Every structure is written in C-alpha cells, then in structure tokens.
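Issue: copy button drops trailing tokens. Both records pasted manually instead:
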Amino acid sequence: MLSIIPKRAESTKIYKNLEKYIRKHYDKATLERVGPFIMDAEQTRERFIQAGSPSGDQIPQYLQSLSVYYRYVKALENRLPLSSTNIKFTWLDSLSKRKMQDSNFLIEKIGILYNIGAAYSKQGADINLSSADGHKLALNYFQVAAGCFNEVRKLAVEVRQSATIDISPEHLTFATYILLAQAYFCMYDKLDKATANKLNLAKLSQTISKNYGQAYELAVSEALSRHIGEEMKNILKFQQLSFAAASKYWMSFIDREEGSKLGRGFGKGVSRLRVGFDLIQRAMQTKNIRGPYLESGRTLLHQLKTEKEHAEAENLSVYMDSIPEAKALQDPEELTMIAPKFPPMVDIVSPINGEQVLQALVPPAILALSAEYKELLHNMILEESDKVAAATRNTTQALESMNLPHKLDAITVDNGLPDSVWKKVQQVQSYGGFAHIENGINSLRQLSENSQKFIAELESMVIREDEEDRSLRQMYGSQWGRAHSAAVNTHLTSDLEKYKQKLIQAINLDRTNYQILETNNEALQLLKKSKVELDQMMPPVENIGQEQSPVVQALKGALATVDQTQKSLQDQMASLTSQADQDNIIEHLMVIEETKTPKEPIFQQEISKFSPQREGLLNTANQLRQTIDAVASANSAFDRERGSYQSNPVRVQLLQNLETAVKIYNELSANLAQGHQFYTNLSQHLSVLQQKVSDFVYSRNLEKNDLFAKLSQSGFPQGGAQNQYRPSYGQQPNPYPSAHSNPYPSAQSGYPQYPPPPPPGAYYPPYPGK
C-alpha cells in the first residue's frame, strides 16, 4: 500500500544560541538551572533527524522521539523570544525539497505532526494484513495518520508560503484521501468474499474508489501535478477504476438475485457487469502497473469477464430482460464510518518532566501579560475578519441580485459543471470538505467539555479550601484568627464566574454551528461529489451561442477581476493572521514587569505595528466595491444586447445549491476557526488562573499550619477537616447548555472576549486612531 513521504529537518544549535541569550539577560545560576532541559530538547530533536526515513522496527522509537520533542516544543513556546536568540528551525518540503526556515515554534509543531502522520502511514502500509490483527492495526494507523495531517492543515494556515507544497491544503487533503481509501480497504480485504454481504462489499468498493478518485483529481490538479510522480498518479487512477469495477461486480449479484425472484430487473445486473468489465479494461490499460496491483486487476478482469458472459447468456435464455443504460443505474451508498483520529497513540499531550525550570526565564506574571496581549491580537484579528466577511458577503449578494455567474453560464457553457463553480467546490474539497466541518464541530465539542472540566477543577479547589476554613472556624471559634476565605478569594471566584459565562456563550455559538450544519446538510453533501458526478447531474443548457461577443467578454473580465480582488483580500487577511500569531513581545513584557511601567501604552504601540496591513485590507475592500460597480455596468450592457437568458431551471437550482453550499462551508469554516481560537485562548487564561488558585491554596495552607502551631502552644489540640488540594471532577460547575440542545440562538456575533486574568486594569485599550 501507499505511504506519505516524511519531511526532513536540519540540525539547529538550540542550546548554543540560548546560552548566549541567557548569559546576556540572566545570571549563571539561571543557565545552570535551565541548560540541561534545553540540551535534552536539542538532543531529542537530533535523534529523530538522524533517524531519517525509518521503516519496520525503527518506527516505534522514531515516533517516541517525535512525540517527546513535540512536548518539549509545547513547553518552550511562548517562553522563549526566538527572534532574540538567533534560533532558526529549518524544514525541507518533502515534495519540492525547498527549505522553509523561521524563528517560529509553529513550523516545528507542523513538521513534527507531519512526520508523525507519515510514520503511521508507513506502519500501516508495511504491515502484513494476514498477521494477527493486521487489518485492525493497519486501519488504526491510517486513521491516526489522517488525523495528524488534518491537524497540520489547521496549523499550516498561519505559516503557509507559496513555495510550500507538502503542507498546502491540496496535498494534505490528497494524503488524507489516500489514507482513508486504504483504511476502507483494510475492512474490504478482511471480509470473506464468498460469504460476506454483497451490498457491504459494493459499498466498500465504491467508497474506496471514491477516495482514490478524489486523490487522483488532486494529483493532476494545477497545484500538485508537477510534484506528484507519474507512478503515483497511475496507481491512483488504477485503484479508482478497479474498485469502481468491483463495486459494479458486487452490485450485479444483488440485481440478478432480485431479478430472478421478481421476473424483471435481471438486466440491471447484466448492465452493471458490462460497465464493470469496461472499467477494469480501462484500468488494465494504465501504464506501469505491476506487482500486487497488476495481479488483483487480472483476477478482477477474469471474474468480470466470466460473470458477464454467464449473466448475458442466462438473461438471453431465461429472463429476456431489457438492459438499461449505465447512467440509469444507481451507485451504492458511500460509507462515512471511518474518520481521522487525533491525537495519535504516542503521547504528545502530557507535560514534559522538568519543564518547571522554564519559569526562571518567563515567570507566571509575564505569562499572564502575554495572555492578555495575545487576547488583544485575537480581538484585532476578529475585527478585521468581520470586515473581510462583510465585504465578501456584500459581493456575493450583489452578484446574486444580478443572477451572476449563472446567467453567463447559460450561453457560454455547453454541458457539465461550469469551471468557475468547480474551482470553488474543488477549493472546498482541498481544505477538507464536508469531513473538515464535521471533524471541526466534534473537536469544538471536545474542547468545550475539557474547558468545563478545567473550570470545575478550579472551582473544586476554591470550594474545598473555603469549606475547610468554615469547618476550622467552627471548631476553633474566635481563636481561628485569619480572614474568612470568602473575603480573600473574591478575585478568584469572580474570574471563575466570568470565564463560566464566556464559556456558556461559546457553547451557544457551538450549538448555532451545529444547527447550520444540520439545516444545510443536504446542500453540503454536494461538496463530497467529484467533477464527473457533478457533470452527470447537470442538465444541458439552452440558448447557447456567441461566447466571443464583446459584451460577454466584458462581463467575464469584470467577474474575473472580482475573483482576483477577493483572493487578494483573503490572502492579505491570512498574512495578517499569521503575523499576529507569530508576534512575540516577551522581552518587552519583562521590561514592563521589571520597571513597573503601565502596560497599556506598550500594548497600543505593539498593536500599531499592524496598522499598515489593516490599512491595506481597507484599501482592498474598497477596490472590491469598485469591481462590483464595474460588474454592474457590464451586466447592464449584457442585458441590453442579450436580453434575459434563462437556463434549465433544474440546472439553475443545482448551481445555486452549489453556490449556497460553498458559502455555508466558508461561513462554518470561519466560525470553527474562531471557535478553536477561543478555546485556545481560554485554555491559556485558565492556566494562568490555575497558577493563581494553586498559589492561593498554598498560602492559605501555610497560614493554617502556622495557626495550628500557635494553637497547639496555647493548649488547643490540632485537628480540623482534611482538605485535599487536588483537582476533582466530582463537583461540576453550574450546568452548561448542551452543544446540541434547543433553542438555538437567533444570531451569531462571534465568540466572546475574556476578562483579564491579572488584577483590575484596562484590558482592552483602544486601538490607534480610535
């Protein structure tokens, strides 16, 4: 089976560069404390670099090195100002071999997750399916590999460069389709073909063919064609055709069995065998197919030829049933039971041993300031995203009001799906398609549950401390001479309540996303279909002619300008998002903390760095409005000369459904990205709050022990309630709304902002110029 080629990383002197930084900004003791941890991280990185592209028994150790280093990276990010340390990470594109180098931990996480996915794909491809649990293990490996690539897709949006092919949405989706096809093949191969349910075999074959077909379409697309080898393309084409033939073969048994019982319909089985035989013949004509692929093709060719001849003879002598055309046959249902899995089986989540030493570089107070600044950046991105979304929405509405581009397609496209529409559908598919939305909603549900548990854990710690204080106060009366817990923990309970309310708002928005998915499920299902399938669904147009007319060309040119301007707007937004995500001002924050200077002016100054990009977005949005004016003018000229052309209403409806599906997909995709960012930021804030709660409980514990000592000296016995200062999920916070409960909110205004984790102060200073 097929596997994904891993990326290659170059060695980086992490310790040497960081040593210079620490000696410059800290003392020798800090270096002695932090140095061993940094050295271990560098050595772990070097181990997987030296492993190259492992196979067989080497893969488990390789995965272990990758996963441990990933945990090192998670500990180090946001604690090291990489731009000031001269540390640069270099990764080579696995397809183009071009280098990507940056002082950014994000490219490290992307490279590691990519290679974890590649390693699991190699394990799945190399496993002996006839071994004990071979099918089950291979299927699981392919699912986990797909899950890793799906996670890379989310992260890579912020660092993607035009020359980066392997982490492009097209290639990541290409890899995912192959992995899912092979996962379904594991199910197919395990079944006993003589006794298995023929409909299940047909469905599995159809699903395998569909996934290989989607991978093939991407392999020959403009984005990937130059980077995917001919051998790979040939294998994908062969697998698509051969499993499509197998699906027809298995469905023919069902049709013929039903036809023999009813006395009619036997011809459907004959038709399927003819189509299947034609497909496998085409598959066998594919160049340079050899080995197991060739053998399986020969076997299927023989089966189809034999069964077709037998069925044709039986129909002629017994049933005399008519043979329907191939397009009249309905394909079996495509299966969706296999989905990408994440996180992988290796541990990439647990804290790394000894990471506490990093507090010597970035203390908790700095982390709190960093979380606050990151929230300001997030809100800036939300503000600009809303503007871009509004400009895009206005453009779509303006085009729809002029019945464009459908009206133009009525006279410029003969049959099949217009290229302009297919490009939009293909772009959606390259970003993960329908599965991306489903996985995103499931991911939000999991993040929401984790956040609820986190808050419950912190609430439990505060409540337990308060209950113990009440118990001891009741036991010792006036002798228990310290402040009531309720009087000194208000800053904690207040923050907890604020975060709970923000989380409830987010859950309501999650519910809205789920409702949008359910309401538009039928239209969104269209985004699963291939170009061939959509072409077959499209009825021919009427009023074809005169594509070269000047008014037609003028309108097409105006629409092309709109598309180019919209793409420019999206690219600028992606660039701003990437720059904001990579912004690291830890050094400035340390100066704020050391000098006790106000944070607000520094925050405003740092935010102002992005003013040129924001101004560029505004200018492009204005240009987009001007392009719509140009389209309106060209459309008026078109209507005057051509009149109001009407296409087949079925065709128009299908085109509108596709446009709606793309629009809904983009809306949901943006909402899900915003939701993931919300939960990421919430996690950072809760981590800061967790440190505060732990410090509070620890200090109260010290006070308690001091009071016990004094009371013991005064003749009072020690005692009191035992307080376990450990997280407990037994006590849940106030009930949260279910992610799928009703009623749904009537409008979506974006995921909520947070209250500041530090003591009272201006959390949202005004942006420059406001």
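Record 2 (pasted manually too):
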Amino acid sequence: MMNDERLEIPSLLNLIDDIQRLGLSDQFGNDIKSSLNKLTCNIDVSKLDLRVTALLFRLLRQNGIWISQDEFERFKDEDGNFMELLGNDVEGMLNLYEASHFALEGEGLLDEAKTFAMKHLHDQIRTNEKGSSTNHVMETLELPLQYRSPWVEARRFMDTYLKDENNPSAKDTQAVLELTKLNFNMVQSMHRNELQEMSKWWKGTELASKLNFSRDRLTEAVFFSVSMAHKPELSECRKALTKAAQFLTLIDDIYDIYGQLDELEAFTSAVERWDINAIDELPEYMQLAFLALYNTVNELGYEILKEKGRNCIPFLRKSWENLCKAFLVEAKWYYKGHTPTYEEYLNNGWVSSSGPLLLTHAYLLASPSITTEGLDCLFNNHDLLRLPSIIFRLANDLATSEAELERGETTNAISSYAKEAGVSLEDAREHMKKLIDESWKGLNRIRALNSNETTAFSDDFVEIAINLARTVQCIYQRGDGFGSPDLIEKQEIDSQKVERLKSQVKKMMNDERLEMPALLNLIDDIQRLGLSDQFGNDIKTSLNKLACNIDISKLDLRATALLFRLLRQNDIWISQGKADEFERFKDKDGNFTESLRNDVEGMLNLYEASHFALEGEYLLDEAKTFAMKHLHDLIRTNEKGFMANHVMETLELPLQYRSPWVEARRFMDTYLQGKNNPSAKDTQAVLELAKLNFNMVQSMHRNELQEMSKWWKGTGLASKLTFSRDRLPEAVFFTISVAHKPESCKCRKALTKVVKFIALIDDIYDVYGHLDELEAFTSAIERWDINTIDGLPEYMKLAFLALYNTVNELGYEILKEKGRNCIPFLRKSWENMCKAFLVEARWYYKGHTPTYEEYLNNGWVSSSGPLLLTHSYLLASPSITTEGLDCLFNNHDLLRLPSIIFRLANDLATSEAELERRETSNAILSYAKEAGVSLEDAREHMKKLIDESWKGLNRIRASNSNETTAFSDEFVEIALNFARTIQCTYLRGDGFGSPDLIKKQVLSLVLEPVQ
C-alpha cells in the first residue's frame, strides 16, 4: 500500500500517520523514511494546501527529516497574518495546530500558527454541536500528539480508528488495523508477564507490608515504565525503571510524610556515603528501606557491568544521592517554614521531580553502548535530562487544585511565581504552560540534532527521554494521577505516623533521666500544642507521681508556679493555703521577696498560676499583683524581643483565658523561637505530631465550614433578609474554639446554626424591627406555635419558621440519639433570650437608662450565653440527666458565669468614644453613673468581676474533678472554652461584630494548614 504509485499524496500521508499513531513505527520505520524522503524530493510543497502542508511538515519533523517553518509563509495575507478564511478548514486547523508543536526555539512563525489554529479550534467547539469532529478537536487541544505517549496513544487510537467517517484511508486499511491489534497484543503479553514478575519481586521485598505507611503503586509504576519504553527489546530497561519508580514512591513518602528531619538527614547521609555500615545510624524502618535500595541498585550495577563492561554504580548512586538531597531541601523548607523564591524552588524542583534519576537509569540500560561522552552528559545534567524533568515538575505543579493553591498547602512553582511576579494564580498557570512549551522546543532541537549528526545519545534513549515528558503530561493532565494518595489513604498514612510519633513522645515523658523542670516544660508544651487528648492519662500519671514523690518546698519559684498551674489545669488538687506553696517566697513583712522580680520566667509562671485561683484564695491575688507589677516594669525597661513579646502576650491574655485550639495554632508558630525553651532541641517529634494532629482535625473543620455554607445558602435567609450580618466563617470559628475535638462534630454544626440564628435575631431586635413587631415575635417564640406566624410581618415569618424548623430538627436528633425530648429546653432558651432582647429594645424605645443591677441581670441572658450552653449540654453530654436539666432550668453557675464574662467582655470592647456618646446601655456606663467613678475606674471594676467569675469557674472545675456532679467533663470544658473564646473574640474590640479583627484567626484556624 505504501509503495502503490497510484496513492495520492494526501492518502499516503494519512496512511503513514495512521501507521505511526497505531504503534507500528518500528515495523515500518525504514519504509516511512524512504517514502517521506521521496516525497520531499519529488513534490513542490508550495503547491500543497494548508491541510496537506501541515501534515507533511509534522510527519517530516516527527521522523527526523528537516523542513523549514517558512513553508507556512504563503498562507499569510499582505498584513503578515494568517488568512482568516483558512479558519473554516477544521482539518487544516487541526493539522496546523499539531505541526506547531514541533517548533524549535526562535521559530516565531510556528508560534503564530499555534495561536491562530487554537483560536479557530476553540471557535469550532463553541459554535458546533457535539459529535466525533468536535470531540476530536477537544482532545487535540487538551493534549496534542507530540505530548502523547506513543504506546498509550496507539491503544486509544485503535478504538477510534474506524469510527471516523472522514478518515480517507479507513475503508482501505483493514490490514493496518489487523496488524496493529496483533502487534499490540503480542507486546502487551510481554508487558503483562513483566507486571507479574515485578509483582512477585515487590512482594518478595516485603517493603509493602513492613513499611505500610507508603503508597503501593506497582501498577502505576509499570504503566510509567511501559509508557516510557514500550518496545519489546527494552524489557530489562522497563523492569529496572519499575523498580526505580517503586523505590522513588517509597522514599518520597519517607521524606514527604513519615520521616522526621533528623531521620531524613541521616538517611540522606547514608545514601551519599553508600556504605552498608551506615544503616546502624538509621531508625529501623529506614534500615529496611536503605538496605533494599542499596542491594537493588548494586544488583542493577552488576547487570550493567556484565552486559556492557562498565561499572556504573557511581552514576546510579549519584542519581539517588541527588534526589535525596533535593527531597531533603524541601523537607527543610517545610520544617523551617521557609518559602523559597521561584528560582530557588525550580532549581531544586526539577531534580526532586525524579526525572534525572529515571533518565540516568534509562540511559545506562537502554543505550546499545555506554560512552564516556554520554556519562559526562549525565554528570553535567545535559538538556536531555533537564528539560523532561522541568516538564515533570511543572506538569506536576499544574495538577495542583485551585483550592490547594489558595490554602497554600504546599510549596509550588505556581504560587511562588505568582507571589514574586505579583500576578494572579491563573496568570501564573499560563506562565508555567509557556515554560513547558519552551522546554518542548528544546527537546525538539535535541531530537533534530540527533537525527542528523552523531551525538552522545542513541535514538532509543532520546525517544525514551521524550517519552518521559509525554508520560508525565498524560499522567498529570487532569490532576495528579500517579503521586497523590486519595483522601482515605492519606488519612491512613497520617494516622500511622501519628501513632509512631505518640510512641516517641510517651517514651520521652517516661524517661527516668528527664529532670523535673524539663518534664514540666514538656507537659506544658504538649498541652499548649493541642495534644492534651492524646496524652491525658500519661500527663495525669506523670503529675500524680511528681506530686507524691517530690518535696515541693525545695523547688524554686519558677518550678513551683509551673507545677502548681499544671496540677490545677489537669484537675489535680494542690492547695495554695494549706500547703503554703507560695508562702515561702515572702519576706518577714509578708510581702513577696523583691529579688524574685529578676526571674522573668518565674514571674510569668507565677502570673499564669494565679489565674487558677478559687474564691477566697487571697495569696494568689497577691501573687498576681506582684507578678503583674514586675512584668510591666520589664516591658518598660527592656527592648523588644522574643521574651518582651512573650510577656506582653501573657499580660494581655493569660493561658487560662485562651481557647486551647486557638492557642495551639498560635503556639506552633512560636514554639521553637524561645531560646530559653529547655525542651526545644529534643521535642521535634512533639511539634511534628502537633502539626499532623492539627491539620487532620482542621480538615474536618474545613469540611464542616463547606457543609454549613451550603446549609446557610439553602435557607435563603442571607439573600431574603439582607439587613442581617452574614458572618458564617466567624460562627464556625466560634464553635471550633468552643468545641474543637473531632468527636464534637455534631455539636459544632448545631452550634454554628445556633450562632447564625442568634446573629440574625439580634439584628432584628437591635437594628431592623419596630417595637410592636418585636413584641409579636417574642410572643411567637414563647408560644412556639406554627400558627402564630400569620400575625408576623413577612420578614419575621421567614426568620421564625426557619428557626422553628431548625430547633425542632435538632430536638428530633437529640431524641433519636439520647432518648430525651429536649425541645422544651431548647425552646425555653430561645424564649429567654428573645425576652431579654425585648427588654433592651423597650429601654431604647422608652429612653430608659437601666440601673447597673437591672442591666446586668438582663444582660447576662441577652449575651446569648445561656442559650448556647443549653444547646451545648444537650449535644455534647454523653447522657442527659434530670439533674442536669434541672441545673439548666435554674441557671447553674456553669451557665451564668461564662455568660457574665460574655456580657462584660462585650461591654469592655466598647470604645471610649462610644461610651462618651452614650449610644447604648452598657455595664461600664451604668456602674460609672451609680458609683460616681470615671469610665476608666468602671472598666477596671468590670475586669475584676471577670476575674471573680473565673474563680467561680475554677471552683466548678475543681468540684467536677473530685466528685460526681450533674455535668460531664466534656460539657464543663466546653463551658470554660466558651468563656475563653469570648475573651479572645473581644480582646481588641468586637471581634464577631467587626469581622476584620478576627479574619486572620479564621484563616489560620480553619483554612490554612500548618506548614
């Protein structure tokens, strides 16, 4: 058929194209070259139309026969642009687009051709109905032939070969298709046998079972090696590449997921030294990985030496060393929180892509002979290694989702370039695509040179290198098809790593050699980093042992205060009075010894400990005053630095007033900065565990935000009642701060809904509703009758019915889960809040200024604290008891005290200007007026009331730990966290009502993973 002289040029070109796309290039290589050379000698290319010219151009360059880009000049108009009328020839546009991808550097005419063809092909998609032609256009635009792995394309093309009615050679080339199927099946049989052999090899290593944190990607590894080097004669090369790909995945997971920095440094050193004795310095799991790699590479080196007479182990080893060093660089960036420059990232990234390693192995195995010139090219990172590896790195990065990029979950060429160039992520993506195109031009140049002169590389190796780039483009075309484990698998890997790190931390805690101050600091670190749940029993055991076995009277102030706080914080009673723990630090006049002020750490610990006081513990009040005075002196007399900042942060908000989960996120960023942190060098495992734990829990929180966003949008309240604040992220932040634990998921989601309705109803009473409407709404809530909505204005009907349905659904869930009908308690909490809102509305409309007592008695209810805590009790308690419900009904201190803190902290957030304008009722104003004191003195009084409320909460917590009460530990902790979250929210103004003040915390707590 190919030699049939009656065959017209277009038919011959289509036949050659079919043969090559169907994977038969090897069988007809010489015939194809002969036919193409004959064509170039015997025809006048200038007389061919665009469709044929472009196809001929591509086939010539594809087969190493030179043809100039100038052949396309004649398709331009007098203005130097491609003639618009050509855009109507879809086949011509497809051929031109395909041809443009064989451009070399500097061939601007082919760039113009690509742009022109791409525009008209996109127009074709927009203006035509879907069909085989449109699908063909979309497939071509998505991945042109030059970017496709030939063997993968052969399998795909077989399925579509006879479907295209416009294929001019389809009817006459049944023999071609039949030969293709036979050839493919024969080669595939060999590939299948190799898969079985590799499966047996991998199973024999036992790495999958011994190191089960790593992804098992053998099938994908075989696909990768087949796509790179599918020819039958390259069997040994494929098997070696499969083994290399398996070890790449394993080692990537060690560096990226499982290993700690000191372990990674040791592993990199072992690979660099390539010394069997180095394994003694590695942890057990790394010993297995290193020895398996060591033996496999050495065996491969032996086979190459046996077959080709060259000792190539130094080159193989060097490729693994380079890869591990590049992985280590990225690990150090992660551990140090370093964001590399774009150049820094890319210079390391093309090596860490693993491209150079794979191509080094491919050269040594696929080349007919190994030359000194070839080895020099490998050593000096020839473009044939560098360019496919750049494509590898950039294609991988382009597979990163927009959501991952916006969250900044990982270092990436796109985000690095966007940041440096000051462009959008979309523009950065386009820049990466252009870099890939430029890299392809370089590969086209190498291929053209290799076809026309003697070079260091064989044709087989050049084709393998180009196929690496093609395989990568195929794999990452629609996401990371090879590297990323799915969500469940990643969670499993993370869980395994968590267990290993927990074991290490427990070992540290139980180390008999650890001195008491170091142990206390370690326990403090663990708790501040959000790991209390993982080590609760271990911490209590260690603290109880300390309390029993040490003579506290011999400890200095620093250790005494820290021990005191940790014991009370963990519900182990230690009396500041009976045991006189702090009395010994006083002088003969009964004052704290002034010399103690020089111990800044001691002052900080004393100040923190004082916030765990109960009512009547005056010694701790004295301790607080003493410590506070000297810490303020320190700030005034010292330059700013880490310690000065630490002091200011502590004075602003002591640990007892901080939400544990918010503090965990903050503390991770500063954990290793303190030069005096005695445990910093030895507790990398603690920090790594904290990051893993935080990110795993945060992932759940992020999903909840998405779910709540969908719910809120579904209610239609934001669009229907536009007067109300839309503060969903802040609501999610609030509930996470109150109840962050994974098992509190249902509680969080319910509380988020509650907070959203509180904000809406608050705006109705405070901003939008008239007094008569508010009275009607309050009455409707009190009666809790669906028939009452007819008496409400339209906007209130929507609000009432949405609330009514949500609360009743919540009541149903509680009844289903816990066997109690709690709707009366839920309804009553909404009634109480709305009545309190109505009282304040009446004050406003009547111009009434309430007394201080009148204001506070109503204000702690209108704070919404009792409502939120009622819902929390019903949702978070393991069981709902009659005693517990009675406590709710009678406003137990565990509801009242956090709500008083809520009201007073909110009022303290009111600015001086607002207070002086007397725009609203406020505890500060009421107290200042009645007591005849300044606004500043009134503020100080409110702060003292907050401190007294905290003493009451400390008392409840102490009682709950030592006797059976109406409330579970979970609910007590939520109530305390409620008060803490309020202090955090209103620390520098109304953080909920003014969202900018809390935006950063929302981002760090919910959206941005810890790096």
